[in-house]
Amino acid sequence: MSDINQVIVDREVPCKLRDGVILYANIYRPQANGNYPVLLTRLPYNKNLPNFSHRWIDPIRTAMEGYIVIIQDVRGRFASEGEFEPFVQEVKDGYDTVEWAASLPYSNGKVGMFGLSYYAFTQLYAMVEQPPALKAIFPAMTGNIFKDAFEENGILSLAAAETWMLDSLAPDYLKRKLSPKDFAKAMEELANDLNQIEKWHTFTPIKELPAVMKHPMLQDIYQKYIQQEYNIKAIEYRDVKRYSDLMDIPAYHLAGWYDNFLNQTLLNYEQMQAYSQNQKLIIGPWGHGMTGTDLGERSFGVNSSGDSIDGKDDLTSLHINWFNQWLKEENEVRIDDEDPVKIFVMGINQWRSEKSWPLQRATSTNFYFHSDGEANLKSGSLNTTLPGDEQKDQFIHDPTSPVPTNGGGTLFYNGRNAGPRDQRKIEEREDVVVYTSEELEQEVEVTGTAKVILWASTDALDTDFTAKLIDVFPDGTAYNLADGIIRAKYRSGKREQESLNGDIIRYEIDLCATSNVFLPGHSIRVEIASSDFPRYDVNPNTGKTTLESEEMRKATQSLFHQKEYPSHVILPIV
Predict the structure, then answer these.
(1) Which residue in the list 53, 80, 107, 117 is annotated as catalytic?
(2) 159: nearest Cα among 513, 512, 406, 509
(3) pLDDT for 333
């Protein structure tokens, strides 16, 4: 067996940063003499646990392909020194680590970065400082450096935020600050709280979450995190104009139709594509970190998985092929002649290549809401005809009994409650309004970003509206495809609006993106409600939020679909 097929593993290799803090990494490299390109990933979840170090791509196989693979604990996590400050620390630390990796005696001076979620954030933040050795990245299922990871326009991704704090951050954070005896007790309490995390999602006010407050050492990082202080601190790194000339780096973006970061991953691609043509995008029928054939209550076929992408690639080979193009000396002038976008089209369960995202040939088509004033499974309809003089629909939003999350792009504990799920039980609720098309006579493909334009009023000071796009099967099964939410107070973006006073307001609810063929005999459905809990924090309808308040009140919601107020969904039809 040749030396290139023999791999050396160097454990706990130190990297000294500019401020003297030392980070530690495991390095996988070919035994054969020579200089090789580096693939670097940086994570806060423990480089020594295979579920985090080996699950995404195989470092052994990658090293056998002629790469040095470096897996590093970020500052303040596990073996690495320093104090952990989520996200913002990764700018300077990312720069220093990239340049350190390039200087290793067996490196050829070229570095690529890869990884999922927070690991991908470390790529984007390192990119900001433009380390000379960084030549290409592969950010997967991640946020956008101009947006907060778990909050947007006043709405907190509640389950994701609390899960990340209690499950991902708390154990190591407390271990570094407590005595062994106190840490053992804290871990017992954390385990008990994670076993009943659904109960903790219902606690208000959120900032006083008992599962956190019982650990004094955890309170400071939780408060800064939940109050967006880390996000505010990172603002200096988030000036788009400043970045306009910093994004010219080859990047392969990986997304999932049911990933909680789908919107932000697509935004990464679109923003970077505007400045660099060396961008690629792949979107599978996947959830966050979940790339198998089955998700939620559906199966998308053998060749939908990350182990058999279109029967041709797997996640590791996808990475190797990408980095071969940018990091191997013999491929310096290689031109990629493949289409830059690859998407999985649900319904027909097929992969397809595209020349752009969004698809230029998609036609925005309005499907209008109709009903006799009692929109439900029998009377709510959806078609391309403008409404006339129709009665409004009404429902009561009771924040003490919110509409429960049932699938979607969630990030719950251990991946629970993700993906496509039958919505019929949800649609039986009196606070869920449903509009359904006739059964289709021919295929209708929807690929791209969908939006709901909703004309509505409320008797609350502030409230939320949610929307879901549903594929209804001939047997009545109703699988969610895409969804969105808007908070009235932030209906125009981050700038807070005045309290509501009963006026009819136009809301634009972004349903993010999907790709699905509605087959003959199927129907297109839209659900409207005012909560999706605990995926999002429930709006108490008081003008405050459950972050700081326990007070809640019911709200009467009125939905309009008339000539003057033509509520509808905009679908990109291909």
Answers:
(1) 117
(2) 406
(3) 43
Give the SS3 label for residue 325: helix
Tokens of 328: 């191997």
Task: Tell me the average pLDDT across 511-522.
Answer: 98
What's the CA gap between 319 and 112, in Å, rounded? 10
- Are the CB atoms for 562 and 499 separated by under 8 Å? no
**Nearest 5 degrees, angle CA 391-CA 395-CA 401?**
170
Contacts of 289 (CB under 8 A, 6+ apart): 55, 56, 116, 117, 141, 415
Least confident of 157-166, 224-233, 496-505: 224-233
**What does the DSSP assignment read for 328-341?**
SGGGTT----S-SE
Q: 308 an active-site residue?
A: no
What is the DSSP code (8-state) at residue 166? I
Give the pLDDT mean for 291-320. 97
Question: Is the CA virtual torsion 515, 519, 524, 525 positive or negative?
Answer: negative
The number of beta carbons lying within 10 Å of the beta carbon of residue 335 is 6
- CA dist 233 and 289 (Å) reads 28
**Mean pLDDT throughout 183-188?**
97
Neighbours of 61 (CB within 10 A): 17
Q: What is the DSSP letter of 245?
A: T
Asked if pLDDT for residue 334 goes beyond 60, the answer is no
Q: What angle do CA 389, 392, 396 make, to 5 degrees?
A: 180
| Cα–Cα distance, 527 to 524 (Å, whole number) | 10
For strand 134-140 and strand 251-258, is the pairing parallel, antiparallel, or unpaired?
parallel
Known active-site residue 288: yes
224: number of Cβ within 10 Å: 16
- Which tokens go with 331? 């491929």
Q: Which of 259, 393, 398, 537 is catalytic?
A: 259
- Give the mean model confidence (pLDDT) for residues 47-52: 93
> Cα separation of 385 and 11, whole Å?
65
| Average pLDDT of the residues of the chain | 93
Q: How far apart are CA 497 and CA 481, in angstroms?
A: 30
Catalytic (active site) residue 117: yes
Dihedral angle sign, alpha carbons of residues 543, 546, 552, 554? positive
Q: Which of 201, 253, 288, 319 is catalytic?
A: 288
Which residues on neighbouring strands pair with residue 72, listed in sequence order?
Answer: 25, 42
Closest CA to 211 of 228, 227, 197: 197
- Partnered with residue 299 across adjacent β-strands are 294
Cα 186 to Cα 77: distance, rounded to the nearest angstrom:
18
pTM score above 0.90: yes
